[in-house]
Amino acid sequence: MTLPTSLDVVPGMRSVIEHCCVTRAHVDKDRAQSLRGLRSCRITLSCISWLPPEILTTIFTYIVEEDTFKSHTGTPRPCGAPISMIITHVCRHWRQVALECPTLWASINCVSTNWLDTMFERSKKTALVVIYGSPGLLRSCFQQILSQLPRIKFLQLCSYPWEVDRIMDCLSSQSAPLLQTFKFSVARKSHTRVFGPISDAIFKGRAPLLRSVELTECTFSWTSCIFSGLRILDVRRIGSASYPTLSQLLSALRRMPELERLTLGLSSRISEDTEPSDQVPLTRLKSIALDTCTLRNAVSLFSCLAFPVDVKIALNLAPIGSSLSDLFSAIHKDPDGPGPIIRSMRASLSYHTFGIQFGTSMSLKSEYFWDPHDDDIPLSIQFKCSSSTRKPPIIFDMCQMVPRRQIQSLFVTSSLCLRDNFWRVGSADLPGLESIQLSGTCNIRSLIAVLQSGGAQGLDVAYPSLYALELQNIDFGCGEAEELQDIVIMRASHGVGIHELRLVKCRNLVDNRVQLLKEVVTDVDWDGHEEGLVGGDGSGGGCLCHICRDESSGDDYMQAVLHSDYDYDPDSDTYSED
After folding, report:
1. How far is CA 151 from CA 93, 130, 175, 372, 411, in A?
2. Which of 169, 210, 256, 294, by CA, is between 20 and 30 Å from 221?
3. DSSP line for 477-504
4. Is the pLDDT of residue 513 over 80?
């Protein structure tokens, strides 16, 4: 049906249409209000809405603290909105609870400048926690943030080099009566920019509660007020102008009698300007870590410190020199006195770096080789290798320098081809060893050879106390599973059988070979991983295990492989310390 188009009809239709539109808008509005009402009722009737405000406040506080302290990326949330602001947009009840809890607004983690005034206002007089791990976001708001310096108890900032001077001016303009933790780092760029040091007048010289200081890529004076009364000091990659003499460093440490954790990056040589008269007592020290440190610096520092025997020590050293024994003497000043019993040793051996850990438990589970978090690892040493120190048996020499050792477990991860002599030295130095765990890209050819032959010092078998053997990511050579079976039988005849065998992600190991081992070992734990070592497309390229390669390439093949990984004289256990 065609609508009439006369002027007396069209205006009427327009009026009807406009009326319909208005009516629809009212209907939509009423519907939206009804939906909001239903949602509000549903939230009100939900179990979480029955929780008292005190419980909700505790939950919200936990969420905010998790977001603040366990977010290590330094990446701001979209729009820079704090998590407490997000909580207020869930429902009216939550909003009311959140607004009445000032502590929820006191954690400022990479918050955009648009929200800062709101955070300051809603946090009222609560002490502030401020974290800006992103220098880009800090650049636009550091003046606004540091205007609240007297209220801040935790301050972590990362700045661009060209902003350091301005930030230091702000930090020096007011005192920090509530500040307990101060972390400051400079984000280095490809170019070098010179900036002023941290002033001695930082915080106007007044930060009476300051107990933790962490500085990275900074320039400062060791006489600054911030180096007094600390419990935690972490200083790394400092500017050359801040490098201390030995007397300056010791003087700073004397002003920290309650120091519990010390971390220093001492890549350049410390100037020994004076002969220390007596040792600095650090009776409450729990851990000390030296990062990118020269061996001489480590010896000099440890010689001047007096600390408890159970301190956890982690060293990341440059290539070791002539004072390896001096280092252990400086650390263990009373080797015959009381202290933790060392029951396990872990070594990580690669072409560029060696790492050694000594533990008080039979198992070492830490994923870190330098500065592990585990309390049962009292000593960790990692060092860069040179051609004269790339000798795996050095780990056993270091073990002999550790007091109170009763090594029962040995963990070795290696990308180097370990020679027979490595395992022979280990057998001689660790007669009480009960467990060996070997992993990495190395093979077990040399270990099998040593276990097949007699032990050191006239013993009938090597590793006479060996009870358990664990192999991870090992390439078995053809026939080595059968050889391992013969070894178990031979050792059992001497009354020193291997009773536990664990095989994880080993290649060239199939079920029928594992069954042979199960016939002679009481407890065999195999993950069922079957992966061959076949060249080409896997159908006819030939076996690529080290034994078959040796047969096809001649007797000199393994010697070439060994010397390509490290220059090691098989007839000598010595290593240069030049």
Report:
1. 29, 10, 10, 34, 50
2. 294
3. PTTHHHHHHHHHHHHHHTT----EEEEE
4. yes
